Amino acid sequence: xxxxxxxxxxxxxxxxxxxxxxxxxxxxxxxxxxxxxxxxxxxxxxxxxxxxxxxxxxxxxxxxxxxxxxxxxxxxxxxxxxxxxxxxxxxxxxxxxxxxxxxxxxxxxxxxxxxxxxxxxxxxxxxxxxxxxxxxxxxxxxxxxxxxxxxxxxxxxxxxxxxxxxxxxxxxxxxxxxxxxxxxxxxxxxxxxxxxxxxxxxxxxxxxxxxxxxxxxxxxxxxxxxxxxxxxxxxxxxxxxxxxxxxxxxxxxxxxxxxxxxxxxxxxxxxxxxxxxxxxxxxxxxxxxxxxxxxxxxxxxxxxxxxxxxxxxxxxxxxxxxxxxxxxxxxxxxxxxxxxxxxxxxxxxxxxxxxxxxxxxxxxxxxxxxxxxxxxxxxxxxxxxxxxxxxxxxxxxxxxxxxxxxxxxxxxxxxxxxxxxxxxxxxxxxxxxxxxxxxxxxxxxxxxxxxxxxxxxxxxxxxxxxxxxxxxxxxxxxxxxxxxxxxxxxxxxxxxxxxxxxxxxxxxxxxxxxxxxxxxxxxxxxxxxxxxxxxxxxxxxxxxxxxxxxxxxxxxxxxxxxxxxxxxxxxxxxxxxxxxxxxxxxxxxxxxxxxxxxxxxxxxxxxxxxxxxxxxxxxxxxxxxxxxxxxxxxxxxxxxxxxxxxxxxxxxxxxxxxxxxxxxxxxxxxxxxxxxxxxxxxxxx
Length: 685
Prior knowledge:
Helix content is 32%, strand content 27%. The protein is an alpha+beta fold and 685 residues long. It folds into five domains: 2-72 and 217-259, Nucleotidyltransferase, domain 5; 77-213, Dna Topoisomerase Vi A Subunit, Chain: A, domain 2 (3-Layer(aba) Sandwich); 281-465, Nucleotidyltransferase, domain 5, CATH 3.30.420.40; 486-597, Dna Ligase, domain 1 (2-Layer Sandwich); 614-683, no CATH class. The strands form ten sheets. Strands 13, 14, 15, 20, 25, 26, 33, 36 and 37 form a nine-stranded mixed β-sheet that branches. The chain is globular, with a radius of gyration of 26 Å.
């Protein structure tokens, strides 16, 4: 039995899968922002009651967390000390000398304080060059004095990031040994371990960010393991990485920077699985929760991996799934500007407490969920009857928005929905139109608690069909955690021209990286049959500023061949990405090895194969607001819709974890995998 746990801003989602019976159980509990582990423990207790099992029956817990992200965004991380090469104390302040646009944007730029203060930074007498040769020997005596001074000043963690340590980490390791001997209670991160790549600012800020969130992550994981133990859970705890892979809780404690986009990764992983099962190879992942909406693009059944991301103002150069987030969710608050008398929605959110007015937890400001209640899109009860909504309270709150704008409550609610949709539409345009992709070539996978409520409207605006609503959309991210594989990346900077390059130089270094990968797989206890190792090269045209990652075919790896075939692939990839190729030498920048460990797939039971009469699934007929008026709208129980069933819009399809809106002039049908596919009637079948 495997348990996936996804902690969101409003709800904590849990999905339990029994591999023996192929049954799944799901639960939602309110998140507890003051201590996320409280909500997780409550969810574990609830889902075990639903499944009729003891907590000790769970064999593996897979958890996505936003602890690292929130610590950086809220500026509530640890006090970090920083050791750099003497003369480079201002690395974090100078950053990339970048200022925001448009013109004169720098005038009003509010530059954030770095994650490690200048007062907590010390310059160490030493220097390596870019080839790893010692230019200035490490002064042990002065270094020890500087370390003692810094470590006794009250810092909670220490980062060591010396110039060109990616080429030779000897000095960093000697400094770490001094700290371990004299100040063993202070955790230390080496840039040569966290990010052994060139570009000193990226390496320094990524390693500092790791230490900035490290004590917080350690405390959180310790609390959650204690609470799970108190509930009787004896299973191993694994954390989801930003690139959709898995790592042990111990590894996450040491390298929490790899979890900065842990939460959204599960939904993207599930979308990839959906693409492979259904044959829809071009999909947009649309994850609308209570606080934010995350979108991503799947092409040819594969997610887009980015080598860096941003957490607030700060870059983090770690492998991540390419996800764009906007502050629009079911809890996004609607308000009328006193100055312009215009309606705004988000990014402020009601969160889990007090939540939208309709939740009845003390919220007084109208949110997107309240607008859905007023329009009749959300039923009076959620979570299978466990959660009753305050319909009149929602109507009164939205009515106040209407009064300020001279509109009825229904018109105000429709305006709230339309504005929220436009905000989310902007994110979808960024990942499609702005990248030269036509959204009409894609389907859209709707998940998250609010995704199926809005996805049909998004598809109508963008022209992307079908809208695909999976069987468990409200907990799809938790399902993605169950389907994630173990993953870690090992890299070595190796800047050389490919002209006349001996392939043996490449493969010797690949062998060293592969040994590290195998050792990591041993630590994660991945069985030999489940292991995989992938090889890639970072290449660029000579004198270019940035590089392109090119995967090596398995046949080339087996033959330990030369770079000719890879160069052809690089030229083609560069032309596809940027529309141009150059007849100049190509330069090798870095070697990468990715270790993977496969996990068992989650095969959910599908509905009955016979379409049957959908009248058996009809729960009630309620008024809902479409095309400017309330119309009697059938509400169906999704659990009773068999494979092949077809529902004509307008309609509302209800289930435990979400509600799906089918707009007029559209229809929904259940495919062989139990997914709801929503198409426009004009499709013609």
